[in-house]
Amino acid sequence: MRYLNEDDIRLMKSRVEAKGEDISSEELFRGLEDCYIWKEEWTRETGHMWTYYTLLKRTPGQDEYDFADTWDFSPVRLANFSTESIVKMLNAY
Known about the structure:
The protein contains four helices and four strands. The protein is an alpha+beta fold. The model has no long low-confidence stretch (mean pLDDT 89).
């Protein structure tokens, strides 16, 4: 299993900037089909649940653990995301 690294993200971001948001899935994912991003699911006993997807695997802070009642971390294959979702994450990065 291979997570994205900063060079992968720079390459993807440059492709998005070069093409605008009309970039094709094939061009965006070229060479990255087997990469994974990081998914975090957090819940509270009140039933509130939130999910974060981050391009790079990260270590949550202690305050995040203290605030949530349960959590689950898992890899998600990058190719399962729409181009629009990836572009939004890259722009946010």
